[in-house]
Amino acid sequence: MTDGMQRARADAPAPRGGRSVPGLLALLTLSALAGWLFDRLGAPLPWMIGPLIVTAIVFMTLAPAITVPATIRPGAQIVVATQVGLAFSPDAFQMLAELAPVMVGMALTTGVCVVIVSYALMRLTGQKFSQAFLSTVPTSPVEAANMAQDAGMPVTPVILSQTLRLALVVITVPFALYAVEGWPAGQRPVITLAAPDPLGMALLVLMGVVGAWGFKRLRIANPNFLGPLAVAAGIAATGHAPAPFPPLVLALAQVVLGTWLGATFRRDFLTTALAQTVTSLASSLVLLALCSACAVGIAALAGVNWQVLVLGAAPGGVVEMALTAKFLAQNVVLITTFHLVRIFIFIPNIPWIVRMILRWENRRNDREKPT
Fold first, then answer.
1. Are 75 and 319 in contact (CB under 8 A)?
2. Domains and CATH numbers, the chain
3. How many angstroms separate the CA atoms of 206 and 324, rounded?
4. Model's pTM, two decimal places?
5. What pLDDT is stored for residue 17 in this prediction?
């Protein structure tokens, strides 16, 4: 763990209670039941949204004396990333090369939307532009918290804004596309308990773990997703990819991710910082609307399916949007790559952009000081 992450966690709200294993297992069981119920109802992304909603309700109402440790998230990320990487066939890579200008243009357009929403958030709340920018820009809550801590900003509001943005996008985008396209008819695929291929699953796990370990050693952002994705995509590009994980394994990975995200909603902070919660939700909705509108416009100009660009431009996490694309039967490879392009453009540049904004704010404050 980096020093920045340790400081970020130290500044974040202290979790209540301890890591009760029976309590955690009970919570995961409840989340799985919620996923099953949402699946039976035909809801979009049921195995993630169901656990997210029920866990958030539990923590904001009952406030159980348990924590959902962050250590359960990497395994689920590795499963999802490896599964997504298997879709990167040679034909997929050729398609991606042809659409590279659209991907870069969409990422830069998203950056403009972030600046607009950050400025509006600054004017509305009175916070500094640097903090508003770091609360709005699409990145992981942990990475944003690290950068906020290093910049001397309050960490908790940044974590709250980033988490609300991620949860809002995960819930809103699938339901919005359902509203536009219509609720799907027909019987949904059933999660079966068919006997898995132990050797194939072991190979997939090995690919994922090696990729995550390698990217972590290279200090590349989001190693538990990008590493397994890169290894699986490289093998898939040769045409010798192993069989994917069984549907049950992928569903369980989504249950873990949804439970972890839902557990970040704490009653004490959401109730004591109601005004900030409302403004964070509003800014996230505006950012999502701006990005979606730009995506529809670019899709019309480029002759690309608009649903693909809306999912590719959505300011959510790459893990969550890859799952959303897979569930909605959209082009998972293309949508994932849109998010990867944005990640590789944004992540390396956010720190120096924040430092530049801070220097500008400091110079402005020095000019405004009475002489």
1. no
2. 3-182+197-368 (1.20.1530)
3. 25
4. 0.71
5. 45
